[in-house]
């Protein structure tokens, strides 16, 4: 009887997976089609707002990679987001307006900054790791706020419009399509990493570090690798952010940005990748758009929304229906 009981879930789950795969593919195609078509039916302001949402979602994706996949809640990713943003603006001001060069430079800058600071942070876990990343973020923010070479508290402005293959992208729709394309590539890359053997190693370290160490794995090295990868993704997100804004200031890498990114992950569902991206869109929509129409009470709305999601959907938006399915009798 035990053998029969053990095999029953396998027999019932397999058809569900088969049936759900085409549905997921169709849903992904539909979402991408809607996103691609958005500039054709929306005005300049909504398209600009969606561009900012996509860039912020890339930052949130890097936070989810650490928090949801590796089990390392962080408040420091805004630092690498800011490093990528400042690098892209400096490249745009003094080197070239080529969008590809700026994204690659932002990604590389985020990777280097994460590699330089992560080797200390990954040796800790839990609240200690959280506080170390917060210290890293605040340190980078202080440097940006006081260093005259990057504009100090005034930031850097006057970045020319980005260009592709020599043609400047002046229309907001063209900038949106560029940011969307890079965001999709980054999302696909992170998804491949999460589903790879390395991703399984990260989840194993997250769930049972002692067992993984006994099997011969090196948890600190695995965490350091994902920390560097998350820094690179955040740096690319910073480059995408300034591709639309054409301006960067210390506020773009402050504590508020880091906290909102972590809030987006919790609301969307840590570890699901797409859920935190949806949470990022909601958070930015409330902060930048809804807040103005409710007398600046956007943070209050975000707090209430966060409390509601935590109590009603503990697994976040991405896990809203999973609990009910598991409660159904087999």
What would the keywords be for this entry?
disordered C terminus; ABC transporter involved in vitamin B12 uptake, BtuC; 13 helices; 330 residues; mainly alpha; two-stranded antiparallel sheet
Give an overview in words.
It is found in: Cell membrane. It holds the Pfam family BPD_transp_2. The chain crosses the membrane at residues 25-47, 54-72, 103-122, 174-194, 221-242, 262-286, 298-318. One of its GO terms (cellular component) is plasma membrane. It is a multi-pass membrane protein. The protein is mostly helical. It has a single domain (42-314), classed as ABC transporter involved in vitamin B12 uptake, BtuC (Orthogonal Bundle), CATH 1.10.3470. The chain contains 13 helices and 2 strands. The protein has a two-stranded antiparallel ribbon with strand order 1-2. α2 (44-69) runs antiparallel to α9 (219-245). The longest helix has 40 residues, at 2-41. The chain is globular. It starts with a helix and ends with a helix. The relative contact order is 0.16. Mean pLDDT is 85; it is low at 1-18 and 324-330.
Major β-sheet profile: 2 strands, antiparallel
Shape: globular
| Distance from first to last alpha carbon | 15 Å
Strand order of the largest sheet: 1-2
Q: Based on DSSP secondary structure assignment, what is the total number of beta strands?
A: 2
Low-confidence stretches: 1-18, 324-330
Give the H and E element order: HHHHHEEHHHHHHHH
Annotated CATH topology:
ABC transporter involved in vitamin B12 uptake, BtuC
CATH class: Mainly Alpha
| Number of helical regions | 13
What is the count of distinct domains? 1
CATH A-level architecture: Orthogonal Bundle
Q: What portion of residues is helical? A: over 70%
From the alpha carbons, calculate the radius of gyration and give it in angstroms: 21 Å
